[in-house]
């Protein structure tokens, strides 16, 4: 069969054809006569219709089946990181009971970076890390711990170091060669980048590196990652930066109770492998009261938040240690069902929170946000139990069995403090 152009040429002649094509081009350009659907069919015979992050073929990386636990340098050391700080921290975690309690990842946050080499590979700041990152990772691994690092989806990190934009696969490969197990990926200097695209790109790059690397997304909740990132990242920040204050907004940073109120309603989006991240712990930083640190740790645990300590664990006080190492509370955080607990009752400053546990039990917090002692009652109805049910209560701060209770549990709670219990049949 003659090609269509020849048939047309025979019928209308060369001059006619030129005229016809010119007219067609004119119409297409000026009036958009080729409909978008037809244009796409011609240019892209296999168009991708959903977003890559939500592609049904995409699998999650299988990591972080319970909320990750570890330590990160930022909240205490900010940009003042170096080899000694990280080694001292790893030594402390391995020997002070934290490792045994489940703290695993030692993560260097911003400011470890040097320049890119001639081939574009990222290097460490030689003055701060004279032995390089690989040696540090080996040191941490030798302690039975895991190693994490920080980068940014933009041209520069928030601390002004080189970001990963345009170097994603190269950086992921470098991290894998160093033995990195965890990447925190920030969102400064990203200009007009689209968060879903940028985080999916790095997620794919990490997987292509051939090493299992947990992916911690830090874009502060701007693009609502809970709606699209379950198969992209293992955790995503839901808020701006935390600061060691009880409440309110302090410059760019937020106090603990303010963060709690942002993170709480997002509970349906968390689950094994993908967690809401209300930011790293401030237990032991600043000058909060013991009650306030207890509330902070209890709420993070009940919200199935990552438990990433942010204090100087090599020099912490006994009070801080007792909070961070409370195994009863940690067990609630690490419960296999992976449900994010949430508020089930509120009256003024008094609240009841509940987290369903894998064995059918509940972890319950009676939280007093006010400045006066007050009695708070958790009624079985708030927890989804019939009132007639008898349940065994355990106090998770006193580490004490409270015996069988029916219908409700009431306690007096101090200012800014919590009572935290489990209820089990
Ligand atoms: C941002 C992040 C912080 C920390 C700093 C580092 O503010 O949200 O957690 O990583 O950058 O510069």
What does this entry look like structurally?
The chain folds into three domains: 4-47, no CATH class; 69-333, TIM Barrel; 342-424, Golgi alpha-mannosidase II (Immunoglobulin-like, Sandwich), CATH 2.60.40.1180. It is α/β, with parallel strands linked by helices. The longest helix is centred in the N-terminal third of the chain and has 28 residues, at 4-31. Residues 1-5 and 7-11 have low confidence and may be disordered. It is globular, with a radius of gyration of 27 Å. The chain has helices at residues 4-31, 36-43, 74-77, 83-95, 98-101, 132-142, 168-178, 195-208, 256-263, 290-302, 318-324, 327-333, 380-383; strands spanning 69-72, 105-107, 113-116, 122-124, 146-152, 182-186, 214-217, 235-237, 241-242, 249-250, 253-254, 275-277, 307-309, 342-347, 350-356, 362-368, 374-379, 390-395, 400-406, 408-413, 418-424. The strands form five sheets. An eight-stranded parallel beta sheet has the order 12-8-7-6-5-2-1-13. Strands 14-15-16-21-18-19 form a six-stranded antiparallel beta sheet. β14 and β15 form a beta hairpin. Bound molecules: alpha-D-galactopyranose. Alpha-D-galactopyranose (GLA) binds at residues 74, 109-110, 157-159, 186, 218, 241.
Structural key phrases:
425 residues, alpha/beta, TIM Barrel, Immunoglobulin-like, 3 domains, six-stranded antiparallel sheet, 21 strands, 31% helix, disordered N terminus, binds alpha-D-galactopyranose
